[in-house]
Write a structure and sequence with these properties.
Length: 179
């Protein structure tokens, strides 16, 4: 059985808009997602905020309003139907809310499908889908960079824009054993 590692934030859970809204509300700013062209969001915040932008990630309410990425649930369900072993992987879960979010939105009820690893290259899988270019580059198998404003500076043929494209490419490339 093939294992597909799937990042949570902004690959299945549309977290960035909620995080940005928290920042804009607190700092009375009008920063937009497309303005954030680097992984380090502090480069784009008001000076009085700076690295404090990351403190919002510790907020227990962050995931209360996070919606699934369009097509993600259907895409994950299709990959499972095709025989893939799905592992949701995240670099942090400060509030222990991501697995609860996955359960609430019917992505997974199995804690064994959930891994927290700052260094995602330590987790073995046949493929990884992530919005962090470094995580993709450090993966030993197939990787797909999920498009986001903060990763568009990287030119790659492995960029994907939606879940239909992900499932189509995985099927086309015969990533899932027995498929």
């Amino acid at each position: 059985m093939s294992t597909i590692l799937i990042d949570i934030d902004d690959v299945v859970a549309s977290m960035a808009p909620v995080w940005l809204k928290m920042y804009n509300t607190f700092y009375d700013d009008t920063l937009k997602l497309n303005d954030i062209t680097d992984w380090d969001w502090s480069l784009f915040t008001q000076k009085r905020c700076g690295k404090k932008i990351f403190s919002f990630l510790h907020d227990d309410t962050l995931y209360d309003n996070v919606k699934p990425v369009q097509g993600a649930l259907e895409g994950v369900e299709l990959l499972r139907k095709l025989g893939a072993n799905i592992v949701f992987i995240t670099a942090f879960d400060f509030t222990n809310s991501k697995f609860k979010w996955l359960k609430k939105h019917r992505f997974s009820n199995d804690i064994n499908e959930f891994v927290v690893a700052h260094n995602k290259s330590l987790i073995k899988g046949d493929a990884i889908i992530d919005d962090n270019y470094e995580n993709c580059m450090n993966h030993d198998g197939l990787w797909m960079l999920y498009d986001a404003p903060w990763n568009r500076k990287y030119k790659t043929i492995y960029r994907v824009y939606d879940w239909k494209e992900i499932t189509d490419k995985i099927q086309l490339l015969n990533v899932i054993e027995g498929n």
